[in-house]
Structures are given as structure tokens and as C-alpha cells.
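wait is this the right file?? whatever heres the structure
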């Protein structure tokens, strides 16, 4: 562009060099005034997530329920958390337990504009995602209501799904929508959550035959199941669910079921 104007070309290079120098200077000043911190523990950190917090994520290992992914003392086809439920998804898996630093990281992502944690949390479940990606045609995500997404500025599950789809070279399906205003699931007891989400989601457009549905937290499976049902109504044959974490059912809010690891009563 400046082949015939060497003076203009030199001026442009000089401007770019000066601008880059100013950016580095301003970045250094901002770091002195507002030092970078871990978005989870708020200790000094050059990265959004410090190594200590990342290493302390409670990862799910060992036997799990084949259907819903609940940790069990031995592999089972279904556990008492999902046995007898009509769950529309084929299989659900979670990266870790929704406790400690992992819970704090997800909370920061959702409520403290912690979008920089998406890369770390998607990497945390990347191995599990890799096991499922060969079996699916596209990646989808649990939608938020338009009002909530507008207020938050983003959908955390959508960001996670987009990152995983990019990493594994899969298309992202964005036609799942929340079409019914309902009370937030986390404000309800476990027994009420299934009825609360009935009819809350619809799928639009052409739905892939095999879908990997991404969400941040799995608790009772009600939301994931309703989303899977909506996808199947529009043509999906198989829906796998993958979440960053799984809530231990610890008897809170009037639910007296056993926590985290199922007993030998699993069959």
C-alpha cells in the first residue's frame, strides 16, 4: 500500500512501534496499581486461575453410573438417583464434584464475569469430551432465558460449548432455546425441579442426529433431560450430556438421599 511512499511507510512503522510501547507501559502501570489475581482464590497470579486452585479441583475418578455419571462403588447400569426416571439423554458425565475450588471457579464464571476461566474449565473436561466427540455430529448447550443472558452478557454454557467445539472441530448447534420463564432451579428442592422445567425448552431449525449437550453443573438431571427431550422432538436420536461439575446430593433443601458416592444397593 505504501510501496511508492517510503516516508509514509516509515511513519506508519514508527507509529506502530510507539503504540506498542505505550501499550506495554500502560499494561505495566495497570499491573502495579491493579495486580492480577486468581479469579478463584484472589491470590496474586499471572493467570486467571492459579496452579494451586487448578490442582485442587475435585475430579471424578473411578466407577460411575453408566446412565447419569454418579460416582458409585462399582460400575452400574443405573443408580438410585436415575433409576425409575424417564431421562431423555443417553448418557451424562461430569468432570468433577461441585465443591471447593471447582465450585468457586464455576461461581466466578457465572456471576463475576469470569469469562477468562472458560479456557481452563473446558480443558478440565476435555478428556471426557474427547471420549464423546467421535460419537456425535455437533455440540449444543443449555440455553438461558433471554432476560438472564442479556443481564449477564453471555451464556457460560455456550462459551464452554463453543470452546470445546472449536477444539474438537465440531459444529456448534445454537437452535436450543428457553421458551418459558420459570423459577431458578437452584432455588428449588430436588423433588420440584423436574416439574419446574417441563416444557421450558424448544429446539429450532435442523437438529443434528447425535448431539453432545454442554452445561456447567449437573444436579438432578432435570434440565439436561428436558433439553435432550426438546432436541429429540426435532430429530436427534442420541444426546450425550457433559458438565463441568456434578452436585453432591447431600440432603439439602429437604432431600434426604445419600451423597456423592452411591452405596452397594446399586445394581
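ok assuming it is, sequence goes like this
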Amino acid at each position: 500500500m505504501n510501496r511508492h511512499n517510503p516516508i509514509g511507510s516509515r511513519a506508519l512503522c514508527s507509529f506502530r512501534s510507539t503504540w506498542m510501547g505505550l501499550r506495554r507501559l500502560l499494561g505495566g502501570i495497570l499491573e502495579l496499581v491493579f495486580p492480577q489475581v486468581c479469579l478463584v482464590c484472589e491470590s496474586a497470579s499471572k493467570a486467571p486461575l492459579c496452579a494451586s486452585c487448578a490442582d485442587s479441583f475435585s475430579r471424578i475418578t473411578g466407577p460411575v453410573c453408566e446412565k447419569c455419571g454418579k460416582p458409585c462403588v462399582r460400575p452400574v447400569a443405573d443408580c438410585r438417583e436415575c433409576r425409575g426416571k424417564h431421562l431423555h439423554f443417553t448418557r451424562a458425565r461430569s468432570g468433577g464434584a461441585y465443591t471447593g475450588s471447582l465450585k468457586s471457579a464455576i461461581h466466578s464464571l457465572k456471576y463475576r464475569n469470569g469469562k477468562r476461566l472458560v479456557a481452563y474449565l473446558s480443558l478440565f473436561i476435555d478428556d471426557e469430551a474427547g471420549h464423546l466427540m467421535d460419537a456425535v455430529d455437533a455440540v449444543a448447550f443449555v440455553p438461558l432465558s433471554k432476560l438472564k443472558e442479556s443481564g449477564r452478557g453471555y451464556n457460560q454454557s455456550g462459551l464452554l460449548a463453543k470452546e470445546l467445539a472449536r477444539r474438537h472441530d465440531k459444529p456448534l448447534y445454537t437452535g436450543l432455546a428457553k421458551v418459558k420463564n420459570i423459577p431458578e432451579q437452584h432455588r428449588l428442592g430436588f423433588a420440584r425441579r423436574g416439574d419446574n422445567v417441563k416444557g421450558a425448552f424448544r429446539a429450532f431449525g435442523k437438529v443434528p442426529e447425535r448431539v453432545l449437550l454442554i452445561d456447567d453443573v449437573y444436579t438432578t438431571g432435570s434440565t439436561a433431560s428436558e433439553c435432550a427431550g426438546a432436541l429429540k422432538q426435532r430429530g436427534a436420536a442420541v444426546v450425550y450430556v457433559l458438565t463441568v461439575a456434578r452436585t453432591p446430593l447431600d440432603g439439602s433443601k429437604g432431600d434426604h438421599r445419600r451423597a456423592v458416592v452411591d452405596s452397594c444397593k446399586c445394581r
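The radius of gyration is 22 Å. so i think its the right one actually
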